[in-house]
Amino acid sequence: MTRLIAFNKPFGVLSQFTGGAGERANLSAFVAVPGVYPAGRLDRDSEGLLLLTDDGHLQARIADPRFKLPKTYWVQVEGVVQPDQLARLQQGVMLNDGPTLPAEAAAMAPPALWPRDPPVRFRKTVPDGWISLTIREGRNRQVRRMTAAVGLPTLRLVRWRIGDWTLDDLPTGQWCDLQPPRW
């Protein structure tokens, strides 16, 4: 039987089961389930939803950009979010590896999230804002590069949703079983 797990990956944790240089924190410190592997990746300095499965076909279906499974991120950015910046994200932006597909982008109120360790650096003289950004690609550090391209450097990045699966109330560093899809 296929196993699908939702994991709320903390900041600073690698999206793999073996350590990196200097034996950095990785999934093995949080998910003691044999035979599951991440369906996609989430950068070490990003947080939020990471799906793991023991089914290679499901793993490929979730992670492969050609299936265009939407991924929603809550992004804390440096600066006040302007309508023209959101419009540029919605149209797609030019990155050094080519244009992105159009994204769903909207300003949002600061979400009620767990505290990040270490906390995001607070600067009295520099305002910040939040964006909900949904993409259907999976380029390296794409969300960070997209927000920077429109003049809004990313301060904190939390993946909230992949397809129909969300973090809901899953605490950081915790995991739960999900019902696998019937694709």
List the helices and strands and how they pair.
Blueprint: E1 4-9, E2 37-38, E3 47-53, H1 56-63, E4 71-78, H2 83-91, E5 94-95, E6 98-99, E7 104-108, E8 128-135, H3 142-149, E9 154-162, E10 165-166, E11 175-178
CATH architecture of the largest domain: 2-Layer Sandwich
Q: How far is the N terminus from the C terminus? A: 14 Å
Counting DSSP E segments of at least 2 residues, the number of strands comes to 11
Number of helices: 3
Low-confidence stretches: none
Please give the radius of gyration in angstroms. 16 Å
User: Given the C-alpha coordinates, what overall shape results?
Assistant: globular
State which percent range the strand residues make up.
25-35%
Q: Can you give the mean pLDDT?
A: 93
CATH superfamily of the largest domain: Alpha-L RNA-binding motif
What is the SS-derived class?
alpha+beta
CATH topology of the largest domain: Alpha-Beta Plaits
Q: Can you tell me the CATH class of the largest domain?
A: Alpha Beta
Tally of domains: 2
How would you describe the overall organization of this protein?
The protein is α+β, with helices and mostly antiparallel strands and 183 residues long. The chain folds into 2 domains: 4-65 and 167-178, 2-Layer Sandwich (Alpha-Beta Plaits); 70-162, 2-Layer Sandwich (Alpha-Beta Plaits), CATH 3.30.70. Helix content is 14%, strand content 30%. The chain is built from 3 helices and 11 strands, in the order βββαβαββββαβββ. Strands 1, 2, 3, 4, 7, 8, 9, 10 and 11 form a 9-stranded mixed β-sheet that branches. It has a two-stranded antiparallel sheet with strand order 5-6. The two termini are 14 Å apart. The mean pLDDT is 93.
